[in-house]
Design brief:
The chain contains 6 helices and 9 strands, in the order H-E-H-H-E-E-E-E-H-E-H-E-E-E-H. The relative contact order is 0.17. It has helices at about 5-10, 70-80, 90-95, 150-160, 175, 225-234; strands at about 60-65, 105, 115-125, 130-135, 140, 165-170, 190, 200-205, 215-220. The chain has a single domain (about 60-234), classed as Aminopeptidase, CATH 3.40.630.30.
């Protein structure tokens, strides 16, 4: 094994453990334990260049830290544009903190944030059960198709299941998220707090029956940002 291979192999972090087999389509579960197992040097495409065909770029998934906030916001602006804050899902996130232990970033070998995903606590209607809302999921536009989005999704789902959450919802493209087990099969009686496209409102049960009988408009249930700020100042 050459020096490049040793460098790449030492860089990859374990994605997650104990993932339920039903969360992945055939052939995906085995790759869930390691993000993009490649020995190709990052320099082959350039840290900000579009990867050449067949070249996988190394990255690692990590918990988001306070120092990542500015880089994450800049990445979201590049990937999603200024209109991202007008989406219905933003009403469920505004003024709230992500669900505890469920905010992740992808970093390149230089430590730069190249991907992000967060999950948020919500209530399914008035007095309904708790669930998670996933989003936004974003990857640096210059290095899409490197497997970063898929790795972030698998890691986020695995951690949500490990922490005992029953279901994850999101608004997104059904063909993409179907590979992770999401569908509109159990969201028919649920709604977002604002305009949304019904066919893009998807859910994944982490515990069988978690969404049985769920109905109503999703409501924010996460920890307020102000409470955390006050606690730090105390």
């Amino acid at each position: 094994m050459n020096a490049t291979a040793n460098l790449s192999e030492s860089f990859f972090a374990t994605l997650s453990t104990g993932l339920a087999p039903h969360l992945f389509s055939t052939g995906e579960q085995g790759s869930a334990a390691r993000p993009v197992p490649s020995v190709a040097p990052w320099a082959a495409a350039g840290s900000r260049g579009v990867p050449a065909e067949g070249v996988a770029l190394p990255f690692a998934i990590a918990d988001e830290t306070a120092g990542d906030v500015l880089a994450r916001e800049a990445l979201l602006d590049r990937a999603m544009g200024p209109g991202r804050k007008r989406k219905s899902s933003e009403k469920l996130r505004r003024g709230r903190l992500p669900s505890e232990g469920l905010a992740f970033v992808a970093r390149d070998p230089e430590g730069t944030v190249v991907g992000t995903v967060r999950l948020w606590d919500v209530t399914l209607g008035d007095g309904g059960a708790r669930a998670l809302l996933l989003g936004p999921l974003a990857v640096d536009p210059s290095i899409k198709s490197a497997g970063i989005g898929s790795a972030l999704m698998r890691h986020a789902i695995g951690e949500a299941a490990r922490l005992g959450h029953g279901a994850v919802l999101l608004v997104g493209d059904a063909p993409y998220y179907a590979r992770f087990g999401f569908s509109a099969g159990k969201t028919g009686a649920l709604a977002m707090p604002g305009p949304f496209e019904r066919h893009r409102f998807l859910a994944l049960e982490l515990a069988a029956g978690a969404l049985d009988g769920a109905s109503g408009v999703l409501k924010p249930a996460g920890r307020p940002q102000r409470a955390q700020a006050m606690a730090r100042a105390a």
